Amino acid sequence: MIPRCLLWKAVFFLAGLALAPAAWLVPAHADPSKYPQFAQQTPAPNIKPEFIGIEELVRQLKAGAKPLIVDVRTPEEFREAHILSAVSAPLAEFQDYITSMPRDRLLVLY
Fold this sequence. Notes:
- The protein is mainly alpha-helical.
- It has one domain: Oxidized Rhodanese, domain 1, CATH 3.40.250.
- It has helices spanning 4-19, 36-39, 54-62, 75-80, 94-98, and strands at 68-71, 87-88, 107-109.
- The protein has a three-stranded parallel beta sheet.
- The longest helix is centred in the N-terminal third of the chain and has 16 residues, at 4-19.
C-alpha cells in the first residue's frame, strides 16, 4: 500500500498544478459539485502534505523523473480532456487503485 503521506502530497501538488497555467496542460474545467463527499476531507494528523509548484515538477521532469500522473476526476471528465500520459483513477473508486500504484515513483494526482 502506498504511504498516505505520499498520496496527500500528490493530491496537494496537483491542486497547485491545476491553478498554474502550463502549455502542456489540456484546458478542462472540473465541477467540484460532483465531489461533495470529498470536499470536506482533511488529511490525518500524521500526514504532512508537501506542496510543489509547476516549476518544481518541470525541474524534476527535466532531471529525468518519470512521475505517474493520475487523473482522479470522473471517467466522463477524463474523456473530455486530460494531461497527456495520465491514467484515470476516479476519486470515488480511488481506494481500489491504491494497491496497484507504484511505490517507487512520484505520484501526481489531479
